[in-house]
Amino acid sequence: MKEKRTIVVIGGGLAGLVSSYLLASKGLEVILIEKKTYPFHRVCGEYLSNEVIDFLIREKLMPTEFELPRINTFLYSDTSGKSVSTPLDLGGFGISRYVLDDFLFQKVLEKGGKVKTGVQVESVQFDENENQFILDLAGGESLVADYVIGAFGKRSKLDKALKRSFIEKRSSYIGVKYHIKSDFDRNSVALYNFEGGYCGVNAIEDEKSNLCYLGNREHLRQYGSIAAMEREILWKNPALKYFFTESEFLFDKPEVINEINFERKKPVENHILMAGDSAGLITPLCGNGMAMAIHAGKLAAEAILEGEDRREIERKYKTSWKTQFESRLWLGRQVQNLFGTHQASIFTRKLIQHVPFVAKQLIKNTHGKPF
């Protein structure tokens, strides 16, 4: 991109932070808008595939002050608590979003990026005549931008304002997250099935573990509270009951998000480059939505830096996004059918146990290559 332009990045998760950092590093005017204030917790698996580690080290975006657990094993439990383990060839590490996002936020500031926190974007409109965006913020402020990166997460008011098709489809999934202290194996990432959902556990920094699950909102409605739903549904898996009864829970209350949706989304809508969960949500066995968000932030920044005009920038981003993520997201949606019911979870456990080649291929094809 030959002329210096103004870029607004909506959403300060991994995709938004990485794209802001890379663009600011090249001297572009970047304004990152995040509705919350750092540091804060997010509903997230907090396992990061090693496909990103070379990039993070190269860009000096890898936190070094923490001893992060190195994860090289995947454990799968059916609804009855029977489990099987398999190696993760590429592997990864555990780190909380509370730590990582705040670290990246500070890096954006170091590069001269402007960050508005505690601010909600109410609307984004593209003016065809002026070839620019107009953004209205809560509180009455307006911004003008040449390019916008949409990194506003799994589900946002902006999705409705932009009339994105997936937002009209109701989802039965709710996401719930805790940090705990337990005797969980710090070299494993685990997925525990229960009726109607599944729970991921992996170690993070400071001897803590992240416990994050997708449950069914009908169960929540039926039992009246998250705690009651957990006792009646999740605890039927003995392994999960052990976590809930024998661990130290570190939050006063869980982090919760409603209506998590795995429907297909488009990487460019209304001329906005969608990145991270705004462009598509990966299912949990794939275990590397964080890595995909980081990679997507990089691709969005590169498209803006390398493209000559809006048409080329959008084309470059669409092409690179689809090349890297489309087949992984599709496979993830198919694999999701292997979770969340008694019979499917038993079948999957036996498949991993007796046909390890299939499990290895599934993991390989839902993870990316180092970049």
Q: How many beta-strand runs?
A: 18
For the record, the CATH architecture stands as 3-Layer(bba) Sandwich
Number of domains as seen in the coordinates: 1
Contiguous uncertain segments of 5+ residues: none
Give the helix proportion (percent range).
25-40%
Kindly report the name of the CATH homologous superfamily: FAD/NAD(P)-binding domain
Largest sheet: 9 strands, mixed
Quick one: overall form?
A: globular
Please state the structural category: alpha/beta
CATH class: Alpha Beta
Structural Rg: 20 Å
What's the total helix number? 11
Q: How would you name the oligomeric state of the polypeptide chains in this document?
A: single chain
Order of helices and strands: EHEEHEEHEEEEEHEEEEHHHEEEEHHHH
Mean pLDDT: 92
- Terminal CA distance: 22 Å
What's the CATH topology name? FAD/NAD(P)-binding domain
Helix-strand layout with pairing:
Blueprint lengths: L5 E5 L3 H12 L3 E6 L12 E3 L3 H6 L11 E8 L5 E12 L2 H14 L3 E4 L3 E7 L4 E6 L4 E4 L1 E4 L6 H5 L11 E9 L6 E7 L2 E7 L5 E8 H7 L2 H7 L5 H9 L1 E2 L5 E6 L7 E2 L2 E3 L14 H18 L3 H26 L6 H13 L1 H11 L5
Parallel strand pairs: 1-2, 1-10, 2-6, 4-12, 10-18
Antiparallel strand pairs: 3-5, 4-5, 7-8, 8-9, 11-14, 11-15, 11-16, 12-13, 13-14, 17-18
Helix pairs in contact: 1-3, 1-8, 5-6, 8-9, 10-11
Pfam families: FAD_binding_3
Organism: Algoriphagus locisalis
GO molecular function: FAD binding
